[in-house]
Amino acid sequence: MDKLLQVFISSMIPIVEQKGAILLGILTYDLDVLQVFVISLVGSIIPAPFILLFFNKIFMLS
After folding, report:
1. Measured between alpha carbons, how far is 12 from 54 in angstroms, rounded to an integer?
2. Is the pLDDT of residue 38 over 90?
3. Are 22 and 36 in contact (CB under 8 A)?
4. For the CA atoms of 25, 31, 35, 41, what is the dihedral angle to 10 degrees?
5. 3-state DSSP call for residue 37?
6. In this prediction, what percent of the chain has a pLDDT beyond 90?
7. Interatomic CA distance for residues 48 and 54, integer angstroms
């Protein structure tokens, strides 16, 4: 898997988010700092609309 894609996907995981994804990209894969920051920022923003959209439906079930 591409290194940037791994950073992108890891930034979407709630526990890891941007902090872990940035460390993964910079320390492990030796990628450019600005590039890693932008990819992890976009990756952490993508799940937000879906969470907000389904927030009420999820809590109505419980």
Report:
1. 17
2. yes
3. yes
4. 0
5. helix
6. 63
7. 10
pTM attached to this predicted model:
0.81
Q: Distances from the Cα of 59 to the Cαs of 27, 30, 46, 52, in angstroms?
A: 38, 41, 21, 12
**CA–CA separation, 18 and 10 (whole Å):** 8
**CA nearest 35: which of 22, 48, 19?**
22
The amino acid at residue 13 is I
- Distance (Å, rounded) from C-alpha 61 to C-alpha 39? 34
Instruction: Tell whether the torsion through CA atoms of 13, 14, 20 and 21 is positive or negative.
Output: positive
